[in-house]
Every structure is written in C-alpha cells, then in structure tokens.
Amino acid sequence: MEIIVVLVLIGTLASVGGGQFFSRDNFDERFFYDDSLQALRYGQKLAMASGCMTQFSISGSGYTLKQDANCNSASASFTQDPFRPGTYTTGYANATVPSGISITPSVNPLVLAPTGEIKNSSLTTISTATIVIGSRTINIDGPTGFVR
C-alpha cells in the first residue's frame, strides 16, 4: 500500500514539475547569457593585448564587438571587426536573441580600455554596470574590469 502512495506522489510531482526541466527556453537564455559574458571577457582581453579600445554593444537584437580602427584613445572609431577566437572568422557578434528574452543594459555601449578599465561611450570610467538577460544578470566593475 505504501509503495502505491509513493508512486502516486512521484507521478504527480513528475507531471507538475517535469515540464520545467525540459523547457528549451531556460537553456536558450542560459546559452545567450554565457555567450554574452564570454564576448565581454574576450573583448577586455583583446583590448589589453592589442592596446586598442574595444566596444561591446548589446540590445534586444543581440550584441556586437568592435575594435577601435585608429587605435587612438583621443578619437575612437569603433568600426573594425575583431576575429572570433577558434574559428578566426571576421566579426564577433550574435544577432540571435532567443524569443521572449528581454535584455536591459544599465550602460550601453561599454568601452573596454587597454588598461583593463571599463568605460561608457564618453570614455569615462564607470563605477558599476549591469546587463540583465532574462532572469540572469551580468555584473561589471568599471575600475577593475571584473565581469561576473
């Protein structure tokens, strides 16, 4: 008798909660979050290694990573497409935001300086910034460049 009650309880829990474990939306959101976080970290490393500022822009239609074509901090021109690591194809962007995912950046675009700092579009170092992607948040510390 007890085994029947246990099996009924397990079956009820599986039918109610099972759908949440197999929803593709959660995986799509997590993938785009991880991809954006990786692009932001790569952009910072690219800026520090090359000595040229890099710009990270994100919106509801995706993100793009651009490098300063002049490599001049006085008059930045973010038109150069960096190479994507691993594939070495030109252009580091993701224009496929999963449906139903909202993206809310507190500072946009972010300028990644060769010193490791993260700045706003007027090249002033920010104190902190956040990028909310669905239910997940990327936290950015401007002076240290720490991204988590």
Keywords summarizing the entry:
148 residues; alpha+beta; minor pseudopilin epsh fold; six-stranded antiparallel sheet; three-stranded antiparallel sheet; 2 helices; 26% strand; elongated
Give structural notes.
Helices cover 32% and strands 26% of the residues. With 148 residues, the chain is an alpha+beta fold. It has one domain (24-141): 3-Layer(bab) Sandwich (minor pseudopilin epsh fold). Strands 1, 2, 3, 4, 6 and 7 form a six-stranded antiparallel sheet that branches. The chain has a three-stranded antiparallel sheet with strand order 5-8-9.
Summarize the structure.
This protein has 148 residues and is α+β, with helices and mostly antiparallel strands.
What series of H and E elements makes up the topology?
A: HHEEEEEEEEE
- How widely separated are the two ends? 51 Å
Number of helices, counting only DSSP H or I runs of 4 residues or more: 2
Strand count, sense and barrel status of the largest sheet are:
6 strands, antiparallel
Roughly how many Å is the radius of gyration? 20 Å
Classify the helix fraction into a percent range.
Answer: 25-40%
CATH class annotation? Alpha Beta
**Mean model confidence by pLDDT:** 90
CATH-level-2 architecture: 3-Layer(bab) Sandwich
Return the domain count. Answer: 1
Strand content: 25-35%
| Strands, total number | 9
- Could you tell me the CATH topology label: minor pseudopilin epsh fold
Residue stretches low in confidence (pLDDT < 50, at least 5 long) are none
How would the global form be characterised? Answer: elongated
Assign the structural class, choosing from mainly alpha, mainly beta, alpha/beta, alpha+beta, or little secondary structure.
alpha+beta
